ATP-binding cassette, subfamily B
Amino acid sequence: MPACGAAALAGEREPPYTDGALRTAPNVFGRRQRSAGPNEPDAAEAARRRSLKPLRRLLPFVLRYPWRLTFTLLFLLVAAIASLGIPAIAGRVIDQGFIAQNLEMVASYGWLIISIAAVMAAASAARFYFVSLLGERVLTDLRRAVFEHLLTLDATFFDTHRVGELTSRLNGDVATIRGAIGSSLSMILRGIVTMTGAVIMMFLTSPFLAMGVVVVAPSLIIPVILLARRLRRMSRRTQDALAEMSAMATEALGATKTIKSFVQEPVQGQLYSQRAEESYVAEVTRLGARAGLMGGIMFMVTTALVVLIWWGAKSVFDGAVTAGELAQFIIYALMATNALTALSELAGTLASVAGATERLIEILDTKSTIEAPANPLPLPVPPRGTVEFRHADFAYRTRDDDRVLTDLSFSVAKGETVALVGASGAGKSTVFSLVQRFYDVTAGAILVDGIDVRQVRPAELRKRFAYVEQEPTIFAGTIAENIRFGRPDATDAEVEAASRAALVHDFVVALENGYQSLVGERGVMLSGGQKQRLAIARALLKDAPILLLDEATSALDAQSEQLVQTALERLMEGRTTLVIAHRLATIRDADRILVLEKGRLIDQGTHDALVAKGGRYAELAKLQFRGELAQAG
Ligand SMILES: Nc1ncnc2c1ncn2[C@@H]1O[C@H](COP(=O)(O)OP(=O)(O)OP(=O)(O)O)[C@@H](O)[C@H]1O
């Protein structure tokens, strides 16, 4: 019995994804990149790994379910008391039954043991059930809380964290905690109660033998604990290697087309096999050490047991204890050893659970810098549909010194179509992010419908915009779900009306499942033009007063282009439109063109006026619309 816990003492069984592994995961170039954000200072990392403090943060989640917790503790106590009662009766069986040769006594004690065993079994099963129930509940709540919180975080957070890392926190870290709470916690709780109980019973049974054990035990336990700690460090290295391998695979498998197109399969294969080898070596080293430790423990425990039996037998012969008391004592000693092995496992498991919890809590503790003001102002109803930038300066927090927008001032009146034009990196997309308050300006102000965007609830503000991205985001779901994205309660008739206006209806009805057809991940089953029209239908259905349109740069064929253009014209009707323009047609139809250069507004006016002026815009237009100008001219 003591040897069976040797593996646990040896510190095996750490769930995957321990601390820090994912933060240094390599990319497809085989280079490690840290994605730690402003909330994750590196220096404290090592100290935090050892700390069990984060576990306290799980407490509020657990205390939400007082009944489940009470039942868990109740059944835990009942099972422990019952299991501690059995050896005491076994001792009596030996003294009053075997030695006194009284078979009746053996039988009646036998019945008693069976009854207690029944209680113990039922209470253990109930304890396991309730602790698992509690664990699953806590994890589900935690996972939901983290996901919901992630959605509230600002764009800067997502600029500094890799999506892969965040999803592995949601999956890997939660799985780590589940593994621990689901089974280990149950074992651990039992271990604590049993060990305490068994030691007390050892003293009650024979203080003399118990004192002997207390003196000798530390010399056995301390080296084992030290070795086990070393083994845990090795185990962490193994998991780091494993996490690196899987992070690399995830990135590579998500980019198979790029890899194939650049004929990088052999290089990627080689990089992966390097990781696999590293992982293999780390694991084999760990297994070797573990095997040695297990063997050592087994030998030590068996030797200790033999010594205890010899010394116990001597005490029986000397008349210091009875044979029954000795048997009883040995059983308690074995129970205590077993419980100790479970507890030594606790240290390893708790450390990794603490690490996993910490990473999840870290997300929960991250505050969004974009928050609703304490006393938000309402936006005017009906909407005015105006936008104004007042001396706006902006720098991304990740690149503090690089000013992206400088003293930008312009205003867009209701129903006006204003085109933003400028070289790549001039700050056009940044204007779109700021007006929707994904980031805050560093100086100046942005007003929508006459009100500073920082004074209204972000959700209210964003309802005023329909945003059509350059590469529309299509979710893996049905066409209807994608169109309804901004208004899940829209009726079928409304969806169809928007689809007809956006020229989506005709191609949808030709599909076998119509609006219920699945579009695949990122809309892979749709053509570029279809995706754009779907995004336009979605924006139409949202029916917001201000349209933010980032025109697609990728060329569509003439017919598809015409369809998208028609759909766009319908979407722009009656709305204020800010458009990042890449097409001459859009530019010509715009009421005004804003020319941005390095984040400054250097000119504005109509296309003809700006061309006639012959400044920067004329040059830019010549470059950007070269083909179209040639055709037009
Ligand atoms: N999330 C971000 N974090 C840090 N810097 C950023 C971020 N997004 C953009 N930038 C930087 O801000 C500057 C302006 O970028 P922006 O995307 O607004 O330009 P753009 O005019 O829209 O360019 P393009 O036409 O190529 O899309 C660039 O120098 C860019 O590198």
User: Anything to note?
Assistant: The two ends are 93 Å apart (CA to CA). The chain has a mean pLDDT of 81. The CA atoms of residues 248 and 254 lie 10 Å apart. The longest strand covers residues 403-412.
